[in-house]
Amino acid sequence: MQLLETKELTKKFKNYVAVDHLNLTINKGQLVALLGHNGAGKSTTISMLIGLIQPTSGNIEFEGLKVNESKYRRKLGVVFQNSVLDNNLTVKQNIDIRANMYKNLDSSFKNKILNDLELSSILNQRYKTLSGGQRRRVDIARSLLNKPEILFLDEPSTGLDIQSRNKIWEFLNNLRKSIGLTIILTTHYLEEAEDADFVYVIDKGKLVEGDTVDNLKNKYAKDTLTLYSDHLKNIKDNLNQKIVEETENSISINPEDNNEAINILSKFKPLITTFEYQRGSMDDIFIALTGKEVK
Ligand SMILES: Nc1ncnc2c1ncn2[C@@H]1O[C@H](COP(=O)(O)OP(=O)(O)OP(=O)(O)O)[C@@H](O)[C@H]1O
User: Fold this and answer.
1) Which of 42, 229, 244, 288 has its CA 20 to 30 A from that of 155?
2) Is residue 294 part of a domain?
3) In terms of domains, do 72 and 138 share one?
4) Does 18 contact ligand 1 (Cβ within 6 A)?
């Protein structure tokens, strides 16, 4: 079911078109990624969707509500790229200030979030003393206090290590299941969009592609497995995959997924000297779609 739609959404800063006639559809309960490089227009799009800045032209529709209506704002949660929390206050104080802004706050939901995000033990610590991962978890908790229908995450894992990132996504995915939360995230990384139901690729404010992660990978950014061997003929004779590149001592193929790569490696283990596995990346998608290297 459709939750949010933009029609020809456009933002100009003087003569510069930051967002250019963007048509996006976000369905209820989906995780949707806006993928693009620095300056692509992702944050500007989010800012318009949350009512922080006015579009120059175009429309945003959310179940019949206008962006500037408080009823719409109450359905949103936002985690900005740069935290808006007070460095000198404790986690608890930061959370309570926000919580006090809401009438009829569901305190059992609040406690569940603090618990699930493992914030209970750092509630009395000042925000400025927290690690990057802890800060992000507090930012996310704060954005969810009102039990929003839709959560905006602007580059949520910039600067985070893999454990922190995984912890946050495990929590968010559970929340998607339990309360049907819709999430819109902006990111530079294809890996971060991995769990997304749908990805919009944006370049210079324009929509250049919209598809599922699997389809994008299949079309533009396949993983590549390169096998190095002194017995290439033997491998080639028994390989069912198409060879995409070949040298004197190596062949490269595009496995469908990790499992296929592992099966190929196991099958030819006695014949392989070594191997490389290169994941398809957002850069591959951009080069394929825009013909440009990443700056
Ligand atoms: N207030 C503003 N005034 C003038 N230009 C702006 C303003 N805000 C954004 N821009 C420009 O609009 C373009 C899009 O910026 P935006 O921040 O939306 O990109 P982004 O995709 O979010 O990039 P990043 O990944 O670096 O955050 C950039 O060229 C930026 O310089």
Assistant:
1) 288
2) no
3) yes
4) yes
Return the closest-CA partner of residue 187 out of 199, 174, 205. 199
Residue whose C-alpha is closest to residue 272's, from 246, 222, 234: 234
- Residue 235 belongs to a domain: yes
Residue minimizing CA distance to atom 5 of ligand 1? 13
ipTM of the complex: 0.95
Q: What is the pLDDT of residue 237?
A: 94
Q: Are residues 75 and 90 in the same domain?
A: yes
Same domain, 147 and 272: no
Per-residue pLDDT of 202-252, as tens digits, reads 999 999 999 998 888 888 888 999 999 999 999 999 999 999 999 999 999
pLDDT at 292: 60
Are the beta carbons of 72 and 65 closer than 8 angstroms?
yes
Q: What is the pLDDT of residue 64?
A: 85
Residue 242 is part of which domain span?
Answer: 222-279
Q: What is the CATH number of the domain that holds 86?
A: 3.40.50.300
How are the residues of the chain apportioned to helix, strand and coil, as percentages rounded to the nearest 5? 35, 30, 35
Ligand 1 pocket, mutate which of 15, 43, 50 (most atoms under 8 A from CB): 43
CATH code for the domain of 254 = 3.30.70
Ranges under pLDDT 50 in the chain: 294-295
- Inter-axis angle of helices 132-144 and 107-116, to 10 degrees? 160
Is 33 part of a structural domain of the chain? yes
Output the residue whose Cα is nearest ligand 1's atom 26.
Answer: 38
Q: Ligand 1 centroid to 17 CA: how many Å?
A: 10
Domain membership of residue 154 (yes or no) is: yes
Look at residue 268 in the predicted model and tell me its pLDDT. Answer: 96
Among 171, 197, 217, residue at a domain's last position? 217
